[in-house]
Amino acid sequence: MKLRTSCFFGYVLFGTLTACNNPPHWSQSSGDSGTSRFDSVSDAEAEVPLIIAPSSPTLAPCTSPYAPVLEAVPTGALLPVFANSTDGLSVGTGAADSTLPTDWIAKASVALPSDPSDVMVFAQVPAKRCPIAIEFAQKYSAVSSFAPAAGLAGSTAISKDDARLKAWATRVLAVNYGENVTAAWQTPDNAIGPATDSVTDVVSLGEGGTITLGFDVTLTDLDGYDFAVFENGFADDYLELAFVEVSSDGSHFIRFDTSSLVDASVSAYGTTDPTSLEGFAGKYRVGFGTPFDLAWLKARPEVRAGVVDLSRINAVRIVDIVGDGRVRDSLGHVVYDPYPTSGSAGFDLAAVGLLNAAP
What we know:
By secondary structure, the chain is mostly beta strands.
């Protein structure tokens, strides 16, 4: 949420990765109200090209193939699949209950269904190139729109009063403020403890800023959503966004995947339809958190190699998105959010609550 003079208001670039060490440090390359829709517009209509292929990470030989995993994906999207280019990657799709694809094709992407439906996506590196065959298998729900605002049918918003919330962040491990945030809003301790309904009980990160929070318990991957991130949006359609990352050692972080179908820039106090956003913190208004499931990360090479342990997460990092079009989501689409802003610029973190925790 942003501060006017006297009134209150609130792509992913892949790094280098080896199979067993040196996971990437995920980095962000980071006006007019935007509209949101799932059909793409031409580059000529856009202020910047809307969709480019995501940059492929450099992977060590025989690293597990993987693709972006989200709770829902847009119909008709092209899903990138990542593997070492010399390992003979092949991909395929099948029915939602299938255990094998209808066919294997030597490609590095999969076209998702054009109509709402569930589909299995498969990828493999064959045994002839590696000691054993390495496979990726994930069910995807292709939808015509993402979950709506808090309180509406189908919303995934987590209320600050949800009985499932077991613990809250208890300490700030690191903070790095971005641009255009004044000292009055650089209040990291405001992100400690339970979320409230106050739009001022927050820390503003500034454009491109980051904050890392720790807990007195351990965040762990169990059934359902595992934690939620709360922002201070004063309306269902005033949405400031951030990427969310987790770590089990405080050093190696992996980022949750995202998808944005906002197809035009958003002014400083412009609006965004929440049904066009998936996987971002800040999707819901003050008092409601965006939920995350650690299981969405289980196919990542860092997890398979044991660099990040999803049963022992001890740090959550929030990375503000500079919403002027320089950032892209996991499918290569431009990410827009309110820009430019000042005073309390950037993501306004209210709290991080845990739904699944271990002592």
